[in-house]
Design a protein that fits this description.
alpha/beta, 5-stranded parallel sheet, 4-stranded mixed sheet, binds adenosine-5'-diphosphate, binds guanosine-5'-monophosphate
């Protein structure tokens, strides 16, 4: 990345099961200057999830204390069941260092981020079809039947927020989807309004 460029705050969201986590993992593996914001949640860890890497797992009381202390950039009661939130400190620290920061959050959280940080780049990860979405959610095998029903019902409503996003990437073939997110990042880094020392170029012209 050019030294004189500010980091990009990029938000990936989209319905549960679309493949956000999978796209993020691949993107992070390929791009060391992209840092993942680890969210806090009150939901129980899934098998294989690691504290501080997958999420910061909190009790409802701990989460509420963090809300009161103003520690979240945004937070949300997702699916009316559990709280999820983006700790503010790490995001601000990484952007100041010139790194890109990746948020993988729900669509309502994405809308809140755009309101708080209008320069944030919102990318909607869309499924090739609603049938594929349900099949992925079932195939992941991490949710109860009831949770799958709730998440697929929510997905239809979440798709309605697509027009409010800056970009859409259809996650059909994984490598294509990751390439497209990289293209978005590359273009965003070249934006004139991200250049830290425009004055230098203007003087030279
Ligand atoms: P999300 O984070 O959006 O809830 P996940 O990343 O957990 O979704 O993906 C849901 C399931 O779909 C996982 O089992 C994952 O392996 C699978 N998956 C993700 N992307 C693709 C893809 N492009 N093609 C096929 N399966 C995929
Ligand atoms: P899961 O329980 O499958 O890990 O996540 C459920 C939903 O919560 C997903 O849509 C995920 O993107 C979202 N989510 C994860 N972290 C955050 C966060 O910090 N804020 C918000 N608003 N949503 C989040």
């Amino acid at each position: 990345m050019a030294e004189n460029t500010k980091g990009v705050l990029i938000v990936l969201s989209g319905p549960s099961g679309v493949g956000k986590g999978t796209v993020c993992k691949e993107l992070l593996a390929r791009n060391p200057q992209v840092k993942l914001s680890v969210s806090a949640t009150t939901r129980a860890p899934r098998p294989g999830e690691v504290e501080g890497i997958s999420y910061f797992f909190k009790t409802k009381e701990e989460f509420k204390r963090m809300i009161d202390a103003g520690e979240f950039l945004e937070y949300m009661d997702v699916f009316g069941m559990n709280y999820y939130g983006t700790p503010r400190a790490y995001v601000e620290e990484q952007l100041a260092l010139g790194n890109d920061i990746l948020l993988e959050i729900d669509v309502k959280g994405a809308m809140n981020v755009k309101r708080i940080a209008p320069e944030a780049v919102l990318v909607f990860i869309a499924p090739p079809s609603m049938e594929t979405l349900k099949a992925r959610l079932v195939g992941r095998g991490t949710e109860t039947e009831e949770a799958i029903a709730r998440r697929t019902a929510e997905a239809a409503a979440e798709m309605q927020l697509l027009p409010k996003y800056d970009y859409m990437v259809v996650n059909d073939v994984l490598t294509d989807a990751v390439n497209e997110v990289e293209t978005i990042l590359a273009a965003e880094r070249l934006r004139v309004d991200r250049c830290k020392d425009l004055a230098k170029f203007c003087k030279e012209a």
